[in-house]
């Protein structure tokens, strides 16, 4: 069953074009000129129920505009969008009861009242029965460690505490779909890890569909099996994260720590005939670069381990950030793949 269905979705904005100087400003008073800017250009994707999908792109790529159309805040210029069987902007009142939204930069909590009072107000907005609300609250408070902050005003919370409260607020009515727009922005690694773990557990327990936009690709690696990548309003990649890494990652690096001193000549002889590159700065340590297409990592490891005493070794993958940067430079994942294979 599909949770989200998007077909030829397009959003254009009319932006006023200001003329220069006093004379130009005077003319603008009487006759304004406008440019049409396309933020989202005829995109298509489907998200099955229960999937965690990463929606990524640089600033201005069209991520937030898409989320606003999916949540019913913006009306599309053209195209079809159906979420949980609803057309968001047409059936907003019924529809919002089934979704949760977290915008990392904007709060849905009331600034000057205690967190628990904000939650109570949201209970009334979403018309959650008292008994269901209490059960849900107990679970969220325990999982997100909110016991100490419930009776504090929101303005007195740290960013990490507030984001945990924002997550709880978006899940109070047990929505089947959650939209997270930069939910970990500005948070330290401990809080980020807690939030990622919580989202994974919620998804597993309730089959909550999650669409996540983020600049932090570690969020994507920790949570998402699928990535939709946007650039200048167009989708340039939609598929499996592991496949993306395998197809466009340049390779893996193996770092060996030896029990005895080893020279470069020995290492090169062990991998003779293999298309790998060795680097050695210390007699007891060496790195070997293994390109994805040419060699199998396990073969390279076997040839070294069978002949030399190894104290330790580790495999370092191509960073997802680097892969994404390469794809943005080329303008499409297909082009990136072609460049890489060449």
Could you explain the architecture of this structure?
With 342 residues, the chain is α/β, with parallel strands linked by helices. It folds into two domains: 244 residues, 3-Layer(aba) Sandwich (Rossmann fold), CATH 3.40.50; 67 residues, Alpha-Beta Plaits (2-Layer Sandwich). 38% of the residues lie in helices and 29% in strands. A six-stranded mixed sheet has the order 5-6-7-3-8-9, with helices on both faces. It has a four-stranded antiparallel sheet with strand order 11-12-10-13, covered by helices on one side. A hairpin with a 2-residue loop joins strand 8 and strand 9. It is globular, with a radius of gyration of 25 Å.
Question: Which characteristics define this entry?
Answer:
alpha/beta, Alpha-Beta Plaits, Rossmann fold, globular, 2 domains, disordered C terminus
The proportion of residues forming helix, as a percent range, comes to: 25-40%
Overall structural domain count: 2
Low-confidence region ranges: 335-342
Q: Average the pLDDT over all residues and give the rounded result.
A: 86
Integer-rounded radius of gyration: 25 Å
Structural class, from secondary structure content?
alpha/beta
- Strand segment tally: 13
Spatial arrangement of strands, main beta sheet: 5-6-7-3-8-9
Strand content: 25-35%
CA-based shape: globular
What string gives the helices and strands in order?
EHEEHEHEHHHEHEHEEHEHEEHEHH
CATH-assigned fold name of the largest domain: Rossmann fold
At CATH level 2, the architecture of the largest domain is 3-Layer(aba) Sandwich
Oligomeric state of shown chains: single chain
The CATH homologous superfamily of the largest domain is called P-loop containing nucleotide triphosphate hydrolases
Largest sheet: 6 strands, mixed
């Amino acid at each position: 069953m599909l949770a989200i269905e998007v077909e030829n979705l397009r959003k254009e904005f009319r932006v006023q074009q200001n003329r220069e100087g006093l004379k130009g400003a005077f003319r603008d008073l009487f006759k304004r000129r406008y440019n049409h800017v396309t933020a989202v250009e005829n995109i298509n994707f489907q998200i099955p129920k229960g999937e965690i999908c990463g929606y990524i792109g640089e600033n201005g790529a069209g991520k937030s505009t898409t989320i606003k159309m999916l949540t019913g805040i913006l009306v599309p210029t053209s195209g079809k969008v159906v979420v949980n069987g609803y057309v968001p902007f047409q059936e907003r009142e019924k529809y919002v009861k089934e979704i949760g939204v977290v915008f990392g930069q904007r709060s849905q909590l009331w600034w000057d009242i205690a967190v628990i009072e904000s939650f109570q107000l949201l209970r009334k907005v979403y018309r959650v029965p008292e008994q269901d609300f209490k059960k849900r609250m107990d679970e969220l408070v325990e999982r997100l460690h909110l016991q100490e902050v419930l009776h504090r005003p929101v303005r007195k919370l740290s960013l990490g505490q507030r984001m945990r409260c924002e997550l709880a607020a978006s899940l109070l009515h047990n929505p089947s779909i959650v939209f997270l727009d930069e939910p970990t922005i500005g948070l330290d690694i401990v809080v980020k890890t807690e939030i990622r773990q919580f989202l994974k557990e919620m998804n597993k327990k309730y089959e909550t569909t999650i669409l996540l936009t983020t600049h932090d690709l570690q969020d994507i690696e920790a949570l998402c099996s699928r990535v939709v990548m946007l650039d200048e309003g167009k989708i340039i990649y939609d598929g499996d994260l592991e496949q993306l890494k395998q197809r466009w990652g340049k390779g893996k690096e193996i770092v060996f720590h030896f029990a005895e001193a080893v020279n470069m000549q020995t290492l090169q002889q062990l991998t003779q005939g293999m298309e790998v590159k060795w680097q050695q700065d210390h007699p007891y340590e060496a790195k070997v670069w293994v390109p994805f297409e040419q060699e199998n990592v396990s073969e390279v490891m076997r040839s070294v381990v069978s002949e030399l005493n190894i104290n330790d070794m580790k495999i370092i993958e191509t960073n997802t950030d680097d892969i994404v940067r390469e794809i943005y430079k080329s303008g499409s994942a297909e082009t990136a793949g072609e460049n890489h294979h060449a």
